[in-house]
Amino acid sequence: MIVFQRSDEGALKRASEEKGLLLVHMHPKRMQKELPFIKSEWIRDGDTKQFLKYLGNLSKEVWTASFVKYKGIEFTSISKNDEI
After folding, report:
1. With 70 as the cut, is the pLDDT of residue 2 above it?
2. CA 14, CA 80: separation in Å to the nearest integer?
3. pLDDT at 75
4. Is the Cα dihedral 1, 84, 82, 30 positive or negative?
5. pTM above 0.85, yes or no
């Protein structure tokens, strides 16, 4: 999934280039109960930083995924103590 930022000031661009694709380890019941709420808040407010903070609090672990030329897909863990 690629997320685009809404803007009246120019063309569409990815909202978070280095954190545009995430892999999240979350309990299925928690995902079904709480993820829709934080997702709808994120869509309504557009606050990606707050969404990622909530997502980090709900999950066991969050990784960013990126493609590195000549290496392939690389996953980087985002610690709950790091600024997401």
Report:
1. no
2. 24
3. 87
4. negative
5. no
What is the distance between the alpha carbons of residues 18 and 63, in angstroms, rounded to a whole number? 11
Q: Domain coordinates of the chain in residue numbers? A: 14-78
Burial of 40 (0-12, 13-18, 19+ CB in 10 A): exposed
Three-class SS state of 65 = strand
Q: Are 62 and 56 in contact (CB under 8 A)?
A: yes
**Rounded to an integer, what distance in angstroms lies between the CA atom of residue 62 and that of residue 47?**
18
**pLDDT class for 6, splitting at 50, 70, 90?**
low
Taking the alpha carbons of 38, 82, 48, 17 in that order, is the dihedral positive or negative?
negative
Per-residue confidence (pLDDT) for residue 65, from 0 to 100? 81
For residue 14, give the nearest of 50, 55, 66 by alpha carbon.
Answer: 66
